[in-house]
Amino acid sequence: MIRGIAGVAGIHVRATDHRIQKGFTLLELMVVVVIIGLLAALVVPRYFNTVSKSKATIARAQMDSLEKALEEYRLDVGSLPTREQGLQVLLVAPAGGARWRGPYLKKDVPSDPWGNPYLYRPGDGGHDIEIISLGSDGQPGGAGDAKDIYLSGTD
Question: Does residue 130 contact residue 121 with C-beta atoms inside 8 Å?
């Protein structure tokens, strides 16, 4: 019988237990968490700033649309709606509105992007208008998201 080379030469081969270790060390995990935190600190404020700017842009576009509807109303009726009539007169004919040819909006009067109603203020003489969004806080004044957005239209 022939013995293996290891047995012939008198060398004893011992089976060693070399297990492959899988997983990450605590230090590696902490480094990854710190990197993710730094990236989030850079990206998240920019994202919210972009969202804030886009809401202001949407508000201005809606206000332009309301101004155009008010101008159409004025051309038909001869004057702008009163403060009491408000923007709803763009959808529903006022009492005694024989020259009203609306509705002047395809949908309901929109709320601003923060869910607040737009303020409508007709000027003296029935020709100047002011449409206002009170921003994210719904209160006059403010800064950042809460800053008021004004649209003033005149002849």
Answer: yes
Q: What angle do CA 141, 144, 148 make, to 5 degrees?
A: 35
Q: Read off the pLDDT of residues 6-51 as tens digits, 9 standing for 90 and up.
A: 555 556 555 555 666 677 788 888 899 999 988 888 887 777 777 7
- For the chain, how many residues are written? 155
Rg value, the chain, Cα: 35
| 9 domain-assigned | no
Does any domain span residue 94? yes
Task: Output phi, psi for 121, to 5 deg.
Answer: -130, 110
Q: Give the total number of structural domains in the chain.
A: 1
| Residue closest to 112 by CA, chosen among 154, 142, 150 | 150
Q: Give the three-class secondary structure for 2.
A: coil
Please check whether residue 3 lies inside any domain of the structure: no
> For the whole prediction, is pTM greater than 0.70?
no
Q: State the CATH number of the domain containing residue 109.
A: 3.30.700.10
Name the nearest CA neighbour of 86 among 108, 101, 56. 108
